[in-house]
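Consider the tokenized backbone below.
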């Protein structure tokens, strides 16, 4: 009877534990086979974003300055949306031109943006900013008034209008604009300071 080759025998014995281990332990891919999958509960719908009307109401009711700043940022983000990729591109380029102090180019770009979307209140507000930087206060006031016709709750436009009127020494009109801004955003400190500064001259001082 022929004897087994020692080398072949060692190879055979070394392979046995591996084969046994492989058959005993289930593979990762087969783990849990035959077991029912855990039942999943009903998926909760994603919370709906608050409407712009709701955000304005929350801003008006908030007496916490930090909370109000967060709400104001959300409102500004909503107002920033023109709904047109072309208008957004023109507005972004106008912003870049303003950063580079090329105000004439910025005005031209915002002219195009407002012509394409004349119902976007923020477009007029931004064009007013350009005219303010060009020292054209008349055009800036006109653009802010158009913005406020489209969105009467635009507190930034009311604030800007107040600043321009004050720079023109139109204190009564400035105070009225600042008060409109403050009614919409009661915790805006700079506007409250402006109201407190102008009110004695416009309304009269207490005796």
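A designed sequence for it:
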């Amino acid at each position: 009877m022929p004897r087994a080759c020692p080398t072949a025998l060692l190879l055979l014995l070394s392979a046995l534990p591996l084969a046994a281990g492989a058959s005993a332990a289930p593979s990762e891919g087969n783990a849990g086979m035959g077991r029912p999958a855990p039942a999943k509960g009903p998926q909760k719908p994603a919370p709906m974003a608050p409407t712009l009307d709701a955000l304005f109401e929350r801003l008006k009711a908030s007496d916490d300055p930090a909370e109000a700043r967060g709400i104001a940022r959300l409102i500004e983000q909503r107002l920033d949306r023109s709904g047109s990729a072309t208008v957004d591109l023109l507005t972004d380029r106008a912003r870049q031109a303003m950063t580079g102090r090329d105000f004439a180019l910025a005005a031209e770009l915002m002219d195009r943006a407002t012509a394409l979307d004349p119902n976007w209140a923020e477009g007029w507000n931004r064009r007013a900013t350009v005219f303010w930087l060009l020292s054209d206060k008349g055009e800036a006031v006109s653009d802010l008034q158009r913005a406020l016709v489209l969105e009467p709750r635009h507190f930034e436009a009311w604030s800007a209008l107040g600043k321009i009127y004050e720079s023109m020494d139109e204190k009564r009109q400035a105070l009225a604009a600042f008060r409109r801004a403050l009614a919409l955003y009661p915790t805006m400190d700079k506007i409250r300071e402006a109201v407190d500064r102008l009110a004695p001259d416009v309304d009269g001082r207490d005796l």
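Residues 1-33 have pLDDT under 50 and may be disordered.
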